Amino acid sequence: MNQYQIGGKTISEHLLTLAERGNRPFTENLHPGIPGVLGVRIPDLRNLAKAIVRSGSWQDYLTEAEHGANSPEQDFMEARTLHGLVLGLIPHPDLEEYLSRVACWVKRINSWSVCDCFTFSGRERFVSEHSDRIWQFLLPYLDEAGEYEVRFGIVVLMQYFIDEEHVLPLLRHYEGVQHEGYYVRMALAWAIAECYIHYRKETLPFLTAQRFPVWVHNKAIQKACESFRVIPEEKATLRSLRVKA
User: Fold this and answer.
1) CA distance 74 to 157
2) pTM of the prediction?
3) For the segment 43-81, what is each residue's pLDDT rounded down to a tens digit?
């Protein structure tokens, strides 16, 4: 099978060219132990994703990305990021087909940055139109065995479902996360802090009752206190809720 090309180059050739103006040592330091790091800058990856979608050949690209995921062409960390970015741009007339494509990509996530690059195509409008289905699509990821699959569920739920209707059930689902991976715990702390920043009244009882693991609880308080959206008096209250490890 011929490799997918755009502009006369394969994806690997594009990534290797873009890496020449990147910062591989810096990116490797942010991703300890992650193989295939090139150091390509995110704006360059976004531009490449846009070019793939604009070209009209994105279905061919996704076929290769989905079915050749174990090939050297697709093994770079940035190739996984690019796959997620393209999914955030394509049209999606069939909801279930689109979610199936997203689920295929989630299995390829191998770092926090690959995970966190993702947005649904159509963003908030798309999610609001299919809110119940997407909520049900995301929740099972919180119970997955894989660290980055769980992180994906936490982060994307945080991205789209911290609202009046969902914040309390969301906090209860976060409370039930059992995975102890570092990137899961960091995502949980981040998400809980965001819940507090947007819905203090609903979130504070979870912190007062210490309903999250101690490390997550304390890190969530730290992150909330780092926000300029939290006033000094509230920060003092939050700091008083810290738990000694």
Assistant:
1) 27
2) 0.95
3) 999 999 999 999 999 999 999 999 864 455 558 999 999
